[in-house]
């Protein structure tokens, strides 16, 4: 009987095949994802268009200070990947040159004869090889001679030949050998302590530690690595105070537990804070350090709040202490503000559902959204948005507002002519002016298109009471430099018109201007002459309307057709008139056939349009399932310590009631064009409702877009019963008869019971 035999295979092929597959699965994806790439030439070309102001230089130096660590990290990654590829190629070479033990055993091949050889030829070959490989000979080989003898026996002995033909071995069925893809030193007694220690280290220490850290972080943190305790803090204060001003929102953001040493080990507390922070508070003023409400009165909250105030005021701090703390705080502020906005939106939805009584005010949400670009651009809300541009300070802002011009926004500055813009900024050098033009030209200019409909309805354009309305917002992002091109093209058109006017003036004499009626430049009548002509014409028209009688009340098309028929039949014989009528009837039939074919085409087109709508819906659902990238456009923010990407909040609000209608959507991948769907329930009563679609930037000031929309909400349609649910008259009569029979049986039963009780 054949059995099974398990053995650890270190010298065979099993272990090396396992090692080769494992290395391939690890090395190839790691190389694809972690191999450091160099910067492209396109990026270096973009660097030329970047700002070269003083603060941008300070920020670039700060970011480049991390370059040595980044380069060292890249070198370590490269060396590890190269070692992995070397091990992969070495293992592949080893697998390719392995001598397989389990080879098909063929006695004819061992004896060196053909499969159809006779017994005499087999004996002759055996004698010849035995004289060469017999152990007693000088050229003898014991292993080779055993193979030759075994092959000779398999071909000459009947039992051995049957075993060879059935089992592939003249000795009969043997034990099946299974190789385990582990080296043999694992089960050796000498290495037992080492193996047990390795197992204990991996499965009893490392694995539980990794799972515990992951579980602790998943329980402690929420979305965007914001502490759950911080979210609870936001919920508490938003529910407590419905309306919050900007400084109140800033105070709550500064009280986040991410800035507390007890919740975040990255926070550094220095003895110098006891001296530097009070001095900074005296310099700032109105920080609210005397507030006794917790956690606003705690030291970490006062420090974070004062550092944010100093950042918004663009105040220089000690570089080795407070400046480092300010950088750590500012990096986390955008994520904290996003969490605050989500908390306000969720509480608003809960209040609309009737689960809580207090509804957060819309201004609370918008003040939180305003705080994000203020922190990114290091400005207070009372400052001008023009201070986002490089080389512009408070002294230079005086040139923007005077009797001739009143430039107060970024778009107004971009819409000006280049000569006027340069005259305002005449105190700056050409390089500084070029920096302003580059930054201004790269700022966003949004085009917002809004479409409201009721999806999954036959009449999607009609909005009924209580229906789920889908507002599709299409955002097109263009650079502000498009306004430069529009102005230059407009100037060129004006110059061309002026040239044409000069040519026409040269061709036409001065005294003959009134006589040239065909020329575009005709002398216009006076205003009083126009009024006189209108009055006269109006009176004549009124008189004509009074005199003309009403001859025929037919429609215009019918009257014209009847008149044409009368005119065409005048002077013709009856036969000719009949033939003309037949021709007209044939023409009408052809027209009807043509209209039928057009209807079929229109039906086909409508089917195609419906199919296109279905495909668009499917593609939109697929886009929703895809993970959105967080790369859009880099923001010019020299006072923000890290690279910032443009994000946009899109939401629907009711400005009259100061309430939020939909949860704000944070768009993080607006490169050129994107679509966002906002869904809400229409009001329960019919009427005209006004809403505002608001698009706010989290990085720039004075680039927000507000679109007002009006929805004509109509009464809800009556739900028609399904044909299968309708009951015929016969079924109704049968049901009535059954009901009457049941009532009669109930009456009989009660009579019997009464009679029994009487007895």
UniProtKB/TrEMBL annotation:
GO terms for cellular component: Sec62/Sec63 complex. Residues 494-504, 727-759 have a biased composition (Acidic residues). This is Translocation protein SEC63-like protein. GO terms for molecular function: protein transmembrane transporter activity; RNA binding. Residues 578-604 have a biased composition (Basic and acidic residues). InterPro entries: C2_domain_sf, DnaJ_domain, Ig_E-set, J_dom_sf, Sec63-dom. Keywords: Chaperone, Endoplasmic reticulum, Membrane, Protein transport, Transmembrane, Transmembrane helix, Transport. The keyword Transmembrane applies. It is found in: Endoplasmic reticulum membrane. It comes from Dinothrombium tinctorium. Residues 106-168 form the J domain.
């Amino acid at each position: 009987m054949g059995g099974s035999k398990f053995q650890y295979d270190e010298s065979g092929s099993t272990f090396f095949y396992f090692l080769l597959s494992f290395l391939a699965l690890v090395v190839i994806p790691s190389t694809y994802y972690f191999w450091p790439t160099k910067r492209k030439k396109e990026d270096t070309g973009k660097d030329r268009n970047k700002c070269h102001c003083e603060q941008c230089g300070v920020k670039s130096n700060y970011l480049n200070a991390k370059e040595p660590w980044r380069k060292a990290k890249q070198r370590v990654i490269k060396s590890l990947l190269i070692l992995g590829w070397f091990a992969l190629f070495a293992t592949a070479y080893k697998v390719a040159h392995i001598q397989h033990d389990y080879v098909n055993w063929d006695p004819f091949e061992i004896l060196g004869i053909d499969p159809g050889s006779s017994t005499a030829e087999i004996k002759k070959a055996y004698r010849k090889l035995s004289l060469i490989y017999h152990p007693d000979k000088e050229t003898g080989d014991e292993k080779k001679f055993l193979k030759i003898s075994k092959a000779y026996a398999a071909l000459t002995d009947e039992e051995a030949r049957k075993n060879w033909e059935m089992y592939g071995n003249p000795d009969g069925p043997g034990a099946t050998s299974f190789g385990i893809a582990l080296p043999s030193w694992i089960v050796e007694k000498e290495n037992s302590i080492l193996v047990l220690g390795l197992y204990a280290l991996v499965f009893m220490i490392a694995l539980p530690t990794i799972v515990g850290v992951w579980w602790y972080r998943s329980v402690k943190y929420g979305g965007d690595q914001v502490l759950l305790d911080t979210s609870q803090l936001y919920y508490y204060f938003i529910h407590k105070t419905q309306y919050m001003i900007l400084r109140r929102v800033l105070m709550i953001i500064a009280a986040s537990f991410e800035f507390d040493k007890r919740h975040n080990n990255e926070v550094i507390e220095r003895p110098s804070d006891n001296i530097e922070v009070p001095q900074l508070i005296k310099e700032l003023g109105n920080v609210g350090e005397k507030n006794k409400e917790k956690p606003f009165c705690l030291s970490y909250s006062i420090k974070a709040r004062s550092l944010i105030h100093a950042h918004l005021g663009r105040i220089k701090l000690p570089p080795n202490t407070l400046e480092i703390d300010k950088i750590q705080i500012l990096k986390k502020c955008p994520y904290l503000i996003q969490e605050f906005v989500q908390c306000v939106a969720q509480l608003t939805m809960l209040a609309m559902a009737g689960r809580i009584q207090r509804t957060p005010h819309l201004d609370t949400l918008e003040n939180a959204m305003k705080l994000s670009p203020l922190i990114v651009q290091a400005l207070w809300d009372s400052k001008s948005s023009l201070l986002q541009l490089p080389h512009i300070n408070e002294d230079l802002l005086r040139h923007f507002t005077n009797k001739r011009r009143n430039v107060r926004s970024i778009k107004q500055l971009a819409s000006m002519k280049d000569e006027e813009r340069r005259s305002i900024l005449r105190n700056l050098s050409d390089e500084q002016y070029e920096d302003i033009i580059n930054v201004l030209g790269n700022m966003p200019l949004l085009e917002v298109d809004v479409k409201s409909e009721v999806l999954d309805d036959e009449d999607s354009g009609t909005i009924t009471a209580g229906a789920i309305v889908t507002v599709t917002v299409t955002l097109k992002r263009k650079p502000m430099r498009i306004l430069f091109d529009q102005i230059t093209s407009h100037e060129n058109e004006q110059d061309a018109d002026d040239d044409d006017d000069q040519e026409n003036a040269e061709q036409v004499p001065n005294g003959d201007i009134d006589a040239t009626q065909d020329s575009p430049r005709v002398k216009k009548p006076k205003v009083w002459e126009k009024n006189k002509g209108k009055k006269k014409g109006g009176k004549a028209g009124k008189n004509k309307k009074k005199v003309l009688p009403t001859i025929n009340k037919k429609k215009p098309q019918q009257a014209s057709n009847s008149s044409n028929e009368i005119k065409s039949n005048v002077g013709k014989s009856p036969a000719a008139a009949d033939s003309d009528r037949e021709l007209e009837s044939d023409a009408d039939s052809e027209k009807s056939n043509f209209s039928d074919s057009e209807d079929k085409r229109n039906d086909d087109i409508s089917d195609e349009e419906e199919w296109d709508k279905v495909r668009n819906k499917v593609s939109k659902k697929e886009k929703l399932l895809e993970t959105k990238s967080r790369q859009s456009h880099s923001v010019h923010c020299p006072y923000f310590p890290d690279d910032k990407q443009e994000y946009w909040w899109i939401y629907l609000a009711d400005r009259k009631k100061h309430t939020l209608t939909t949860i704000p959507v944070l768009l993080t991948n607006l490169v050129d064009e994107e679509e966002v769907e906002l869904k809400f329930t229409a009001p329960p009563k019919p009427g005209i409702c006004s809403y505002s679609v608001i698009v706010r930037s989290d990085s720039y000031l004075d680039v927000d877009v507000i679109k007002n929309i009006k929805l004509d909400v109509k009464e809800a349609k009556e739900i028609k019963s399904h044909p299968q649910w309708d009951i015929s008259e016969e079924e109704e009569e049968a049901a009535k008869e059954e009901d009457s029979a049941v009532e009669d049986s109930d009456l009989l039963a009660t009579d019997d019971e009464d009679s029994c009780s009487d007895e």
